[in-house]
């Protein structure tokens, strides 16, 4: 339903302040401390504390460039080493549902507009890549930053669901949202 003709590292996307690029194995070592920051992990459903090797295992999968997902490493354009400051992951394994997107940013980069800028570029690429009519997202109750950002990007709430959060060890309520292609393109 959602094709992905690119089975190799996709070209980077450059925005005003950021570069969204394909993952490299070394990124796991920059993402690992973010996974271990409870203020981030609490909202992204990774184990906390994050076990040694967890990030490395995930990145080994990302490096296969699965045809049903796209991982964008977010880095500052001004950083010559292109160190990872965050990640956007989209997945469209379930052909019955629109692709789903998730994201996170290192705490020290919160509140600077970086994720909004990165999401604009990632959403444009995902609509182009998948030809989907909508993209889904979710956030745990209490995640005010994601709530505000997704609504600013014109995602609309479509309901709630329950999800086991590995960081807190509890089943938690989350808000489910959708962004339609027509709303996205009306900008």
Automatic annotation (TrEMBL):
The record's GO molecular-function terms, alphabetically, read: acyltransferase activity, transferring groups other than amino-acyl groups
Ranges for the N-acetyltransferase domain? 17-155
Q: Which residues form a coiled coil?
A: none
**What InterPro entries does UniProt report for this protein, alphabetically?**
Acyl_CoA_acyltransferase, GNAT_dom, N-acetyltransferase
Indicate the transmembrane segments per the record: none
PANTHER family to which the protein is assigned, alphabetical: GNAT FAMILY, PUTATIVE (AFU_ORTHOLOGUE AFUA_3G00765)-RELATED-RELATED
**Protein name, per record:** N-acetyltransferase domain-containing protein
Tell me the organism: Roseibium alexandrii
Organism phylogeny = Bacteria, Pseudomonadati, Pseudomonadota, Alphaproteobacteria, Hyphomicrobiales
């Amino acid at each position: 339903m959602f094709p992905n003709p690119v089975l190799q590292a996709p070209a980077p996307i450059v925005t005003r302040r950021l570069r969204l690029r394909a993952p490299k194995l070394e990124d796991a070592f920059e993402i690992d401390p973010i996974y271990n920051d409870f203020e981030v992990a609490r909202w992204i459903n990774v184990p906390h504390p994050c076990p040694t090797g967890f990030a490395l295992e995930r990145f080994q999968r990302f490096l296969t460039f699965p045809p049903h997902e796209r991982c964008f490493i977010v880095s500052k354009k001004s950083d010559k080493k292109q160190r990872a400051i965050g990640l956007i992951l989209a997945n469209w394994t379930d052909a019955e549902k629109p692709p789903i997107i998730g994201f996170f940013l290192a705490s020290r980069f919160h509140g600077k507009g970086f994720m909004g800028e990165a999401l604009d570029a990632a959403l444009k690429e995902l609509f182009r890549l998948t030809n989907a009519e909508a993209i889904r997202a979710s956030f745990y109750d209490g995640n005010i930053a994601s709530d505000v950002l997704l609504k600013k990007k014109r995602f609309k709430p479509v309901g709630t669901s329950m999800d086991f959060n590995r960081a807190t060890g509890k089943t938690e309520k989350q808000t489910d949202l959708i962004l339609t292609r027509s709303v996205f393109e009306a900008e």
